[in-house]
Amino acid sequence: MEDCIFCKIINKEIKAATVYEDKHTYAFLDIRPASEKGGHTLVMPKKHYELITDIPDEEIKHLSLTLKKISSALLKFSQGLNILQNNKKIAGQYIKHIHFHLIPRFENDNITIEKWKANEYKNGEIEKIQNKIKLLF
Ligand code: 5GP
Ligand code: ZN
């Protein structure tokens, strides 16, 4: 896809620190890592899709296997791992080529991704949300 920075990296038109590549998937280091010690790996399909829901079923199987493979490598030197994937701008997606963020974790690494403010459901709200989601499959 023209004007997609990740497509350009995959096509080797722009440099990146590639860590893994196969027929369907690609992984390289994020230029602005969340972790000082462990870097931050971005994993994606080679083909350009914007959202997780855009990826064909066969393609997402390949992507899942690559996510597992890279997670396994990262967990060999880190103490833990967060996997994050943003869909649409409101959720923090700035690059419109779907990608997963793999962030190795270490004691006292000062990364706060998993520490969102937890809310309480108001009366009846949990059932309302549950029923809304169940009707959408
Ligand atoms: P998003 O916010 O879309 O989920 O994540 C985009 C990520 O891509 C960011 O973490 C950002 O640091 C990274 N990024 C943006 N431009 C480049 C680039 O040119 N090269 C590399 N390696 N990473 C990039
Ligand atoms: Zn792209």
CATH class: Alpha Beta
The number of distinct structural domains comes to 1
**Regions with little confidence, pLDDT below 50 for 5+ residues:** none
The main β sheet shows up as: 5 strands, antiparallel
Strand content: 15-25%
| Tertiary shape | globular
CATH architecture: 2-Layer Sandwich
Give me the CATH superfamily: HIT-like
**How much is the radius of gyration in Å?**
17 Å
The topology string of helices and strands comes to HEEEHEEH
Helix content: 10-25%
Number of strands: 5
Biggest sheet: strand arrangement: 1-2-3-5-4
Average pLDDT, all residues = 97
CATH fold-level assignment: HIT family, subunit A
| Number of helical regions | 3
| Ends apart, CA distance between termini | 30 Å
The ligands bound in this entry are: guanosine-5'-monophosphate, zinc ion
Quick structural overview:
The protein has 137 residues and is of the alpha+beta class. Helices cover 25% and strands 18% of the residues.
Overview of this protein structure:
- The longest helix has 18 residues, at 57-74.
- 25% of the residues lie in helices and 18% in strands.
- The protein has one domain: HIT-like (HIT family, subunit A), CATH 3.30.428.10.
- The radius of gyration is 17 Å and the shape is globular.
- It is an alpha+beta fold and 137 residues long.
- A hairpin with a 3-residue loop joins strand 1 and strand 2 (25-29).
- It has a five-stranded antiparallel beta sheet with strand order 1-2-3-5-4, covered by helices on one side.
- Guanosine-5'-monophosphate (5GP) is lined by residues 5, 16, 28-32, 86, 92-95.
- Zinc ion binds at residues 1, 4, 6-7, 48, 97.
